[in-house]
Specification:
This protein has 9 helices and 6 strands. It is of the alpha/beta class. The protein is globular, with a radius of gyration of 17 Å.
Length: about 260
């Protein structure tokens, strides 16, 4: 079946709090030096693949915005329009925000932290509104209703936040046959991949998405993904650009962020 539209994802490059091994969520942390290089590499891979974007979407967090802009510059496509929306933000980690992942395991136990990190529908404890990390204090969310500003989220909550934006803004571009770039976060990308790939609740939470690595989908006229021989399980349709072994190693590193000892 012929490809009607192309959808490309990239998780942002490594952030400084990825380096520091902290729960980040909605905190507006910058890219690390490695993250800047990953964003450039993503753009180089896009250029080498010959992908030409019509429209880009990203969150309102600088690590995703910079990844988008750097990748576009490297691909010589800075002219492409970019829409930013809070609905593509990372999952809100509630009271875990700002905590060291391994220290949190020592304090609460590996099993409890695994539930908070990877349960589909059990969120971490809520963040207190007096916390320095409560997003309601951030001017970039001043126009949002308080009810739209999360105090904690599980993946199920993140999906409920992301998918209206998919339906209203991203999907129409694909229906029109466009090539679309989404530079976002591990969990906001997971939300969309769950729908595209039909991944079950108990599998999607274990899907590790490496930083700064373009993931390409060819879609038919009904926006159904076309199978790819290069898809890495549990994905059946999306193919990463770049070295397969390096991508597997990067995904494994994400999985091991809470491993103690």
């Amino acid at each position: 079946m012929a490809s009607h539209a192309t959808l490309v994802f990239s998780r942002h490059g490594e952030s400084q709090w990825n380096v520091d091994n902290k729960f980040t969520g909605w905190v507006d942390v910058d890219l690390s030096e490695k993250g800047l290089d990953e964003a450039k590499q993503a753009g180089a891979l896009v250029k080498a693949e010959g992908l030409k974007f019509d429209m880009c979407f990203t969150s309102v967090l600088k690590r995703a915005i910079k990844t988008c802009n750097i990748a576009l510059e490297e691909a010589d496509q800075l002219h492409v329009p970019v829409a930013k929306c809070w609905r593509l933000n990372e999952r809100m980690y509630g009271g875990l925000t700002g905590l060291d992942k391994k220290e949190t395991v020592v304090k609460h136990g590996a099993e409890q932290v695994l539930v908070w990190r990877r349960s589909f529908d059990i969120p971490p404890p809520a963040i207190e509104k007096y916390s320095e990390f409560y997003p309601g204090k951030d001017p970039k969310y001043a126009a949002l209703a308080e009810s739209d500003i999360p105090v904690t989220e599980c993946l199920k909550d993140t999906i409920a936040r992301v998918m209206p934006y998919w339906d209203e803004e991203i999907k129409p571009q694909l229906v029109a046959g466009k090539t679309v770039f989404v530079a976002a976060h591990g969990n906001s990308i997971r939300a969309i991949l769950k729908m595209i790939e039909g991944i079950p609740d108990d599998v999607i939470t274990g899907l590790e998405i490496p930083t700064g690595t373009p993931l390409v989908y060819s879609l038919d006229a009904d926006l159904k993904p076309l199978p790819s021989d290069l898809a890495m399980p549990p994905l059946k349709y999306g193919r990463y650009l770049g070295d397969a072994e390096a991508i597997k190693a990067a995904a494994e590193a994400v999985k091991n962020q809470t491993k103690v000892g």
